[in-house]
Structure formats: structure tokens, C-alpha cells
């Protein structure tokens, strides 16, 4: 990891994890728990730096800080498990990204690059949801709950961007080895 570019350093860290077999969520979760010394479910800079060293990743203090800053998406001074996974899971193949893009475009009926409650009307049937059936929730609440699955954990605004949608499925992708299986699963789920 001779480069001082934070993105290159992060890619080097990802490759080191992959070379150790930490490709799926289970292995990355285990690595995260090992590094999380105080069991807070978040890594501070000290834990992260020590964890890099303990995992045999030799980087300078400055490089560790650069990687940490890049991983700390919400800027709160810690890296939670979601941020950790998002940064270290393997990139998706073109076939996976293409089918996810097709699913997003199907949902984004207005074509404005954001899926909202209005986009769901007419394509997602809320009447089958148990809480709608029982009268607990309105149709809009069912739609917002559905969108919440894809919405960014750090920006719950009831609107799903294509990046948020791809990020959601990138997490799913990390635990599926076969491109063919993943593509078939998405096509079946979204009736593509």
C-alpha cells in the first residue's frame, strides 16, 4: 500500500480482505467484530488503526486516518458496520449493475432519478400488506415502509435515489457468488 491516495489505500485494504477470504458479509462481519474492541458496534480511529495492524495491513498513521475518513460516510467520527461493509465488499459485475438499473428504472415511473411514494402508486399493491389489512397503516405508510428498505440509513427521507438502490443491492450481491443466480433473482423479484 505505497500510494497515498485514500481511494487507492481503501482499494488496497479491500484487496487484502479479499485475499484473506473476507468476501462475503459473514467474513466481513467477523472481521468487524474482531476489530471492535469495546463492542460498541462502531469503530473509532484508534480501533480501526489497531485493527488494520492486527489484520497484518501495514499503513502509516496518516494513511490509516485517510482510509478512516473515507469510510466514515456520515462524518460522525466512527465507522458503523454498514459503512464498513459498504467500503469493503467486492464491487459488482456489469451484469449485476445492469439488472439493478433495470429494476430501478421500472420503479422510477416519473424518470426523475428518485423513487417516491408517487412512483409506487399503481405498481406496488399495498392492500396485501398485513398492517394495511388490519387498518393500522394507510397506503402511504406501507409505501414509505417499502421505500425505507432501500433508503440510506444516514438520510431517511422517504426518497430512494439510484445510488441508494444500487447500494442496497450491492449488500445483497456480496453474499451471492453466481452472477446468473443474482440476475435471475432480481429479474424474478421485479418481474423484468
TrEMBL record:
<dbReference type="GO" id="GO:0046872">
    <property type="term" value="F:metal ion binding"/>
</dbReference>
<keyword id="KW-0677">Repeat</keyword>
<feature type="domain" description="EF-hand">
    <location>
        <begin position="59"/>
        <end position="94"/>
    </location>
</feature>
<feature type="domain" description="EF-hand">
    <location>
        <begin position="95"/>
        <end position="130"/>
    </location>
</feature>
<dbReference type="InterPro" id="IPR011992">
    <property type="entry name" value="EF-hand-dom_pair"/>
</dbReference>
<dbReference type="InterPro" id="IPR051581">
    <property type="entry name" value="Ca-bind"/>
</dbReference>
<protein>
    <recommendedName>
        <fullName>EF-hand domain-containing protein</fullName>
    </recommendedName>
</protein>
<dbReference type="Pfam" id="PF13499">
    <property type="entry name" value="EF-hand_7"/>
</dbReference>
<feature type="domain" description="EF-hand">
    <location>
        <begin position="23"/>
        <end position="58"/>
    </location>
</feature>
<dbReference type="InterPro" id="IPR018247">
    <property type="entry name" value="EF_Hand_1_Ca_BS"/>
</dbReference>
<dbReference type="InterPro" id="IPR002048">
    <property type="entry name" value="EF_hand_dom"/>
</dbReference>
<keyword id="KW-0479">Metal-binding</keyword>
<keyword id="KW-0106">Calcium</keyword>
Amino acid at each position: 500500500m505505497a500510494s497515498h491516495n485514500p481511494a487507492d489505500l481503501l482499494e488496497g485494504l479491500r484487496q487484502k480482505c479479499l485475499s484473506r477470504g473476507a468476501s462475503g458479509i459473514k467474513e466481513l462481519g467477523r472481521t468487524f467484530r474482531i476489530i471492535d474492541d469495546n463492542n460498541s458496534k462502531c469503530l473509532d480511529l484508534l480501533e480501526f488503526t489497531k485493527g488494520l495492524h492486527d489484520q497484518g495491513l501495514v499503513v502509516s498513521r496518516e494513511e490509516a486516518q485517510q482510509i478512516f475518513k473515507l469510510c466514515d460516510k456520515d462524518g460522525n467520527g466512527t465507522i458503523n458496520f454498514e459503512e464498513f461493509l459498504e467500503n469493503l465488499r467486492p464491487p459488482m459485475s456489469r451484469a449485476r449493475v445492469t439488472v439493478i438499473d433495470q429494476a430501478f428504472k421500472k420503479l422510477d415511473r416519473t424518470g426523475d432519478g428518485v423513487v417516491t411514494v408517487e412512483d409506487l402508486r399503481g405498481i406496488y399493491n399495498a392492500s396485501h400488506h398485513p398492517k394495511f389489512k388490519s387498518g393500522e397503516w394507510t397506503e402511504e405508510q406501507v409505501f414509505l415502509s417499502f421505500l425505507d428498505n432501500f433508503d440510506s440509513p444516514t438520510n431517511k427521507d422517504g426518497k430512494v435515489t439510484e445510488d441508494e438502490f444500487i447500494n442496497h443491492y450491492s449488500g445483497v450481491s456480496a453474499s451471492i457468488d453466481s452472477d446468473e443466480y443474482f440476475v435471475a433473482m432480481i429479474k424474478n423479484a421485479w418481474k423484468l
